[in-house]
Protein backbone atom coordinates (compact mmCIF):
# COMPACT_ATOMS: atom_id res chain seq x y z
CA UNK A 1 0.00 0.00 0.00
CA UNK A 2 1.26 3.50 -0.86
CA UNK A 3 0.19 6.64 0.95
CA UNK A 4 -0.58 9.72 -1.13
CA UNK A 5 0.56 12.95 0.48
CA UNK A 6 -1.59 15.63 -1.10
CA UNK A 7 -1.45 18.11 1.76
CA UNK A 8 -2.47 21.60 0.67
CA UNK A 9 -1.82 22.11 -2.99
CA UNK A 10 -1.33 25.30 -4.96
CA UNK A 11 -1.43 24.92 -8.77
CA UNK A 12 1.45 26.16 -10.85
CA UNK A 13 2.27 26.42 -14.52
CA UNK A 14 5.42 25.50 -16.35
CA UNK A 15 8.44 27.66 -15.65
CA UNK A 16 9.41 29.30 -18.92
CA UNK A 17 12.08 31.79 -17.89
CA UNK A 18 15.50 31.34 -16.38
CA UNK A 19 16.36 31.60 -12.71
CA UNK A 20 20.01 31.72 -11.69
CA UNK A 21 21.84 29.15 -9.59
CA UNK A 22 21.82 29.78 -5.87
CA UNK A 23 25.10 30.14 -4.10
CA UNK A 24 26.11 28.78 -0.72
CA UNK A 25 27.72 31.14 1.77
CA UNK A 26 29.91 30.15 4.73
CA UNK A 27 28.76 30.21 8.32
CA UNK A 28 29.54 33.14 10.52
CA UNK A 29 32.48 32.26 12.70
CA UNK A 30 30.45 32.77 15.88
CA UNK A 31 27.90 30.17 14.85
CA UNK A 32 30.62 27.79 13.75
CA UNK A 33 32.39 28.17 17.11
CA UNK A 34 29.11 27.60 18.95
CA UNK A 35 28.50 24.39 17.04
CA UNK A 36 32.05 23.28 17.73
CA UNK A 37 31.27 23.66 21.41
CA UNK A 38 28.08 21.65 21.03
CA UNK A 39 29.90 18.87 19.26
CA UNK A 40 32.74 18.97 21.76
CA UNK A 41 30.34 18.66 24.67
CA UNK A 42 28.59 15.56 23.33
CA UNK A 43 28.35 12.88 26.03
CA UNK A 44 31.42 10.68 26.14
CA UNK A 45 31.32 6.99 27.01
CA UNK A 46 32.72 5.86 30.31
CA UNK A 47 35.33 3.14 29.67
CA UNK A 48 34.09 0.99 32.55
CA UNK A 49 30.49 0.81 31.37
CA UNK A 50 29.15 -2.38 29.92
CA UNK A 51 29.50 -2.69 26.15
CA UNK A 52 25.74 -2.80 25.63
CA UNK A 53 25.22 0.41 27.56
CA UNK A 54 28.04 2.10 25.68
CA UNK A 55 26.51 1.16 22.36
CA UNK A 56 23.10 2.43 23.48
CA UNK A 57 24.60 5.76 24.50
CA UNK A 58 26.51 6.03 21.25
CA UNK A 59 23.27 5.92 19.28
CA UNK A 60 22.06 9.06 21.05
CA UNK A 61 24.99 11.16 19.82
CA UNK A 62 23.60 13.43 17.14
CA UNK A 63 26.06 14.19 14.37
CA UNK A 64 25.37 17.46 12.58
CA UNK A 65 24.96 17.09 8.81
CA UNK A 66 24.14 20.70 7.95
CA UNK A 67 23.61 24.10 9.52
CA UNK A 68 21.01 26.48 8.10
CA UNK A 69 21.50 29.90 9.65
CA UNK A 70 21.22 29.14 13.39
CA UNK A 71 19.46 25.76 13.02
CA UNK A 72 21.00 22.33 12.61
CA UNK A 73 20.03 19.24 10.63
CA UNK A 74 21.21 16.06 12.27
CA UNK A 75 22.13 12.72 10.77
CA UNK A 76 19.12 11.17 12.50
CA UNK A 77 16.79 13.71 10.86
CA UNK A 78 18.28 13.01 7.46
CA UNK A 79 17.98 9.24 7.87
CA UNK A 80 14.36 9.59 9.01
CA UNK A 81 13.45 11.78 6.03
CA UNK A 82 15.15 9.38 3.64
CA UNK A 83 12.96 6.59 5.03
CA UNK A 84 9.86 8.78 4.67
CA UNK A 85 10.76 9.51 1.04
CA UNK A 86 11.14 5.80 0.34
CA UNK A 87 7.84 4.87 1.99
CA UNK A 88 5.84 7.65 0.30
CA UNK A 89 7.37 7.37 -3.19
CA UNK A 90 7.46 3.58 -3.32
CA UNK A 91 11.19 3.41 -4.05
CA UNK A 92 12.97 0.18 -3.07
CA UNK A 93 14.34 0.32 0.46
CA UNK A 94 17.93 -0.63 -0.27
CA UNK A 95 21.27 0.75 0.82
CA UNK A 96 21.89 1.91 -2.74
CA UNK A 97 18.59 3.80 -2.84
CA UNK A 98 19.25 5.49 0.50
CA UNK A 99 22.72 6.61 -0.55
CA UNK A 100 21.49 7.79 -3.93
CA UNK A 101 18.59 9.93 -2.73
CA UNK A 102 20.37 11.37 0.32
CA UNK A 103 21.66 14.52 -1.46
CA UNK A 104 18.21 15.40 -2.80
CA UNK A 105 16.55 14.76 0.55
CA UNK A 106 19.13 16.96 2.28
CA UNK A 107 18.56 19.76 -0.24
CA UNK A 108 14.83 19.51 0.42
CA UNK A 109 15.41 19.67 4.19
CA UNK A 110 17.57 22.77 3.79
CA UNK A 111 14.92 24.49 1.68
CA UNK A 112 12.25 23.59 4.23
CA UNK A 113 14.32 25.12 7.01
CA UNK A 114 14.63 28.33 5.01
CA UNK A 115 10.92 28.38 4.22
CA UNK A 116 9.91 27.85 7.85
CA UNK A 117 12.41 30.45 9.06
CA UNK A 118 11.01 32.98 6.60
CA UNK A 119 7.43 32.28 7.64
CA UNK A 120 8.36 32.75 11.29
CA UNK A 121 10.09 36.03 10.48
CA UNK A 122 6.89 37.20 8.80
CA UNK A 123 4.74 35.74 11.59
CA UNK A 124 2.92 33.52 9.10
CA UNK A 125 3.88 30.14 10.54
CA UNK A 126 1.21 27.47 10.81
CA UNK A 127 -0.20 26.40 14.16
CA UNK A 128 -1.04 22.87 15.22
CA UNK A 129 -4.66 23.21 14.08
CA UNK A 130 -3.51 23.98 10.53
CA UNK A 131 -1.22 20.97 10.49
CA UNK A 132 -3.95 18.76 11.99
CA UNK A 133 -6.30 19.70 9.14
CA UNK A 134 -3.66 18.95 6.50
CA UNK A 135 -2.82 15.62 8.14
CA UNK A 136 -6.51 14.72 8.35
CA UNK A 137 -6.92 15.56 4.65
CA UNK A 138 -4.20 13.07 3.80
CA UNK A 139 -5.85 10.42 5.96
CA UNK A 140 -9.23 11.01 4.28
CA UNK A 141 -7.75 10.81 0.78
CA UNK A 142 -6.32 7.44 1.71
CA UNK A 143 -9.59 6.27 3.30
CA UNK A 144 -8.14 6.30 6.81
CA UNK A 145 -8.70 8.05 10.10
CA UNK A 146 -5.93 10.11 11.66
CA UNK A 147 -5.10 7.26 14.05
CA UNK A 148 -5.06 4.69 11.26
CA UNK A 149 -2.66 6.80 9.20
CA UNK A 150 -0.42 7.25 12.24
CA UNK A 151 -0.43 3.49 12.82
CA UNK A 152 0.24 2.75 9.17
CA UNK A 153 3.26 5.05 9.10
CA UNK A 154 4.51 3.64 12.39
CA UNK A 155 4.29 0.10 11.04
CA UNK A 156 6.79 1.14 8.39
CA UNK A 157 9.11 2.84 10.83
CA UNK A 158 7.98 6.39 10.02
CA UNK A 159 6.94 8.75 12.81
CA UNK A 160 3.81 10.76 12.02
CA UNK A 161 5.72 13.81 13.21
CA UNK A 162 7.89 13.62 10.08
CA UNK A 163 4.86 13.97 7.83
CA UNK A 164 3.53 16.77 10.01
CA UNK A 165 6.86 18.63 9.76
CA UNK A 166 6.75 18.36 5.98
CA UNK A 167 3.16 19.61 5.89
CA UNK A 168 4.06 22.49 8.19
CA UNK A 169 6.78 23.60 5.79
CA UNK A 170 4.38 23.40 2.84
CA UNK A 171 1.71 25.46 4.62
CA UNK A 172 4.26 28.02 5.79
CA UNK A 173 5.70 28.47 2.31
CA UNK A 174 2.30 28.77 0.64
CA UNK A 175 1.49 31.56 3.10
CA UNK A 176 4.75 33.34 2.38
CA UNK A 177 4.17 33.09 -1.37
CA UNK A 178 0.58 34.27 -1.09
CA UNK A 179 1.49 37.34 0.96
CA UNK A 180 4.91 38.30 -0.34
CA UNK A 181 4.90 37.09 -3.94
CA UNK A 182 1.37 36.94 -5.34
CA UNK A 183 0.76 40.70 -5.01
CA UNK A 184 3.71 41.25 -7.36
CA UNK A 185 2.14 39.19 -10.14
CA UNK A 186 0.91 41.45 -12.92
CA UNK A 187 -0.60 40.18 -16.17
CA UNK A 188 -1.60 42.84 -18.67
CA UNK A 189 -4.29 42.63 -21.33
CA UNK A 190 -1.59 43.01 -23.98
CA UNK A 191 0.22 39.96 -22.61
CA UNK A 192 -2.99 37.92 -22.77
CA UNK A 193 -3.69 39.04 -26.33
CA UNK A 194 -0.15 38.23 -27.41
CA UNK A 195 -0.33 34.78 -25.85
CA UNK A 196 -3.64 34.07 -27.55
CA UNK A 197 -2.26 35.13 -30.94
CA UNK A 198 0.83 32.93 -30.60
CA UNK A 199 0.78 30.15 -33.23
CA UNK A 200 0.16 26.72 -31.79
CA UNK A 201 2.42 24.72 -34.05
CA UNK A 202 1.97 21.53 -32.06
CA UNK A 203 -1.83 22.09 -31.94
CA UNK A 204 -1.95 20.01 -28.77
CA UNK A 205 -2.14 20.39 -25.04
CA UNK A 206 -0.77 17.95 -22.48
CA UNK A 207 -1.56 17.31 -18.84
CA UNK A 208 1.99 17.85 -17.67
CA UNK A 209 3.83 17.07 -14.43
CA UNK A 210 7.40 17.88 -13.50
CA UNK A 211 10.19 16.99 -11.13
CA UNK A 212 12.88 19.63 -10.71
CA UNK A 213 16.22 18.78 -9.14
CA UNK A 214 18.10 22.02 -8.45
CA UNK A 215 21.74 22.53 -9.30
CA UNK A 216 23.03 24.94 -6.69
CA UNK A 217 26.58 25.01 -8.03
CA UNK A 218 27.93 24.20 -11.52
CA UNK A 219 30.15 21.46 -10.10
CA UNK A 220 27.05 19.56 -8.96
CA UNK A 221 25.57 19.17 -12.44
CA UNK A 222 26.98 15.71 -13.18
CA UNK A 223 25.92 14.26 -9.82
CA UNK A 224 22.43 15.78 -9.99
CA UNK A 225 21.97 14.48 -13.54
CA UNK A 226 22.83 10.99 -12.33
CA UNK A 227 20.32 11.36 -9.47
CA UNK A 228 17.70 12.36 -12.03
CA UNK A 229 18.46 9.33 -14.20
CA UNK A 230 18.01 7.05 -11.21
CA UNK A 231 14.69 8.65 -10.25
CA UNK A 232 13.51 8.37 -13.86
CA UNK A 233 14.33 4.68 -13.87
CA UNK A 234 12.46 4.16 -10.60
CA UNK A 235 9.36 5.81 -12.08
CA UNK A 236 9.62 3.65 -15.18
CA UNK A 237 9.91 0.64 -12.88
CA UNK A 238 6.61 1.52 -11.22
CA UNK A 239 7.20 4.26 -8.64
CA UNK A 240 4.39 6.84 -8.62
CA UNK A 241 5.54 10.03 -10.37
CA UNK A 242 3.43 12.37 -8.23
CA UNK A 243 4.65 10.80 -4.98
CA UNK A 244 8.27 11.05 -6.13
CA UNK A 245 7.68 14.70 -7.09
CA UNK A 246 6.30 15.53 -3.64
CA UNK A 247 9.39 14.11 -1.97
CA UNK A 248 12.19 15.20 -4.29
CA UNK A 249 11.12 18.07 -6.54
CA UNK A 250 12.28 21.61 -5.78
CA UNK A 251 9.64 23.21 -8.02
CA UNK A 252 6.69 25.06 -6.54
CA UNK A 253 4.47 22.43 -8.17
CA UNK A 254 5.80 19.76 -5.76
CA UNK A 255 2.94 20.47 -3.32
CA UNK A 256 0.58 19.43 -6.10
CA UNK A 257 2.55 16.29 -6.94
CA UNK A 258 4.35 18.11 -9.75
CA UNK A 259 1.07 18.63 -11.64
CA UNK A 260 1.15 21.68 -13.92
CA UNK A 261 -2.32 21.20 -15.36
CA UNK A 262 -3.10 21.46 -19.07
CA UNK A 263 -0.22 23.08 -20.93
CA UNK A 264 -0.10 23.95 -24.66
CA UNK A 265 2.98 22.28 -26.10
CA UNK A 266 3.80 25.50 -27.95
CA UNK A 267 3.97 27.47 -24.68
CA UNK A 268 7.00 25.68 -23.24
CA UNK A 269 10.60 26.51 -24.00
CA UNK A 270 11.42 25.83 -27.68
CA UNK A 271 14.14 23.31 -26.78
CA UNK A 272 11.62 21.35 -24.69
CA UNK A 273 8.78 21.28 -27.20
CA UNK A 274 10.08 18.20 -29.11
CA UNK A 275 10.71 16.36 -25.81
CA UNK A 276 7.30 17.06 -24.31
CA UNK A 277 5.51 16.91 -27.66
CA UNK A 278 6.42 13.28 -28.27
CA UNK A 279 5.54 11.99 -24.80
CA UNK A 280 2.46 9.79 -24.86
CA UNK A 281 0.10 9.43 -21.87
CA UNK A 282 1.86 7.49 -19.13
CA UNK A 283 5.37 8.24 -20.42
CA UNK A 284 8.17 9.96 -18.52
CA UNK A 285 10.96 11.90 -20.23
CA UNK A 286 14.66 11.40 -19.85
CA UNK A 287 16.23 14.03 -17.55
CA UNK A 288 16.89 17.29 -19.34
CA UNK A 289 18.91 20.31 -18.30
CA UNK A 290 16.82 23.49 -18.13
CA UNK A 291 17.59 27.04 -16.99
CA UNK A 292 16.59 26.16 -13.41
CA UNK A 293 18.18 22.73 -12.96
CA UNK A 294 17.43 19.19 -14.12
CA UNK A 295 13.84 18.47 -15.13
CA UNK A 296 11.92 15.23 -15.55
CA UNK A 297 8.54 15.48 -17.27
CA UNK A 298 5.51 13.22 -17.22
CA UNK A 299 2.45 13.38 -19.46
CA UNK A 300 -0.77 11.82 -18.17
CA UNK A 301 -3.16 13.01 -20.89
CA UNK A 302 -3.20 14.70 -24.30
CA UNK A 303 -5.88 16.62 -26.16
CA UNK A 304 -6.25 18.88 -29.20
CA UNK A 305 -5.55 22.52 -28.43
CA UNK A 306 -8.73 24.49 -28.11
CA UNK A 307 -10.74 21.50 -26.91
CA UNK A 308 -12.02 23.74 -24.13
CA UNK A 309 -12.51 26.74 -26.40
CA UNK A 310 -15.22 29.21 -25.44
CA UNK A 311 -15.87 32.55 -23.81
CA UNK A 312 -13.58 31.68 -20.90
CA UNK A 313 -10.47 31.28 -23.08
CA UNK A 314 -9.13 34.68 -22.11
CA UNK A 315 -9.57 33.98 -18.42
CA UNK A 316 -7.83 30.62 -18.85
CA UNK A 317 -4.84 32.33 -20.52
CA UNK A 318 -4.77 34.94 -17.76
CA UNK A 319 -4.67 32.20 -15.15
CA UNK A 320 -1.89 30.34 -16.93
CA UNK A 321 0.23 33.46 -17.30
CA UNK A 322 -0.39 34.41 -13.67
CA UNK A 323 0.62 31.01 -12.36
CA UNK A 324 3.71 30.92 -14.55
CA UNK A 325 4.77 34.33 -13.27
CA UNK A 326 3.98 33.35 -9.68
CA UNK A 327 6.21 30.29 -9.93
CA UNK A 328 9.11 32.27 -11.36
CA UNK A 329 8.85 34.89 -8.63
CA UNK A 330 8.47 32.30 -5.87
CA UNK A 331 11.54 30.39 -7.02
CA UNK A 332 13.46 33.65 -7.20
CA UNK A 333 12.35 34.42 -3.63
CA UNK A 334 13.61 31.03 -2.42
CA UNK A 335 16.80 31.40 -4.43
CA UNK A 336 17.46 34.70 -2.66
CA UNK A 337 16.83 33.07 0.71
CA UNK A 338 19.45 30.45 -0.16
CA UNK A 339 21.90 33.07 -1.38
CA UNK A 340 21.60 35.17 1.77
CA UNK A 341 21.59 32.25 4.20
CA UNK A 342 24.58 30.84 6.05
CA UNK A 343 24.59 27.16 5.07
CA UNK A 344 27.27 24.70 6.06
CA UNK A 345 26.91 21.20 4.60
CA UNK A 346 29.11 18.64 6.31
CA UNK A 347 30.22 15.29 4.92
CA UNK A 348 28.04 12.36 5.94
CA UNK A 349 28.82 8.73 6.41
CATH topology name: Chitinase A, domain 3
Q: What string gives the helices and strands in order? A: HHEEHHHHHHEHHEHEEEHE
Strands, count: 8
The main pleated sheet reads as: 5 strands, antiparallel
Oligomer: single chain
- Number of separate domains: 1
- Mean of pLDDT: 79
Helix percent band = 40-55%
Task: Give the C-alpha Rg.
Answer: 22 Å
* Overall geometry: globular
Write up this protein:
This protein has 349 residues and is of the alpha+beta class. The protein has one domain (14-44, 60-349): Chitinase A, domain 3 (Roll). The protein has twelve helices and eight strands. The chain has helices at 29-40, 51-58, 75-89, 95-121, 128-141, 146-155, 160-181, 189-197, 221-236, 241-248, 273-277, 313-340, and strands at 64-68, 71-74, 204-213, 259-264, 283-284, 288-290, 293-304, 343-345. Strands 3, 4, 5, 6 and 7 form a five-stranded antiparallel sheet that branches. Strand 1 and strand 2 (71-74) form a beta hairpin. Helix 3 (75-89) packs across helix 4, helix 5 crosses helix 7 and helix 8 (189-197) packs across helix 12. The protein is globular and about 60 Å long. Residues 203-301 form the PpiC domain. Keywords: Chaperone, Isomerase, Periplasm, Rotamase, Signal. GO terms for molecular function: peptidyl-prolyl cis-trans isomerase activity. This is Parvulin-like PPIase. InterPro entries: OMP_Chaperone_SurA (IPR050280), PPIase_dom_sf (IPR046357), PPIase_PpiC (IPR000297), SurA_N (IPR015391), Trigger_fact/SurA_dom_sf (IPR027304).
